[in-house]
Design goal:
This protein has a single domain, classed as Immunoglobulin-like. It contains no helices and seven strands. The radius of gyration is 12 Å and the shape is globular.
Amino acid sequence: MGISIFPNPANDLLNVSTSENGFNSVRVINVLGETVFEQQIVPGNHSQIQLNIAALPPGLYVLEAAGKNNSATAKFIKE
């Protein structure tokens, strides 16, 4: 199970595509390990979501998608 994110680097919107429907939340973690953004995923809307990251300062981040029995991560750059 995995995720892909695009565009990368991103400016205002980040598209997250998941390979399966097992995820129920996503969070963005900065380089200090702090959660700076978190969003629940609505059931039935798992394969593609769009995150508004305009408020985040430029830098490197890790996006973590989590479910009851699984998780996946991907790195991205906010310009």
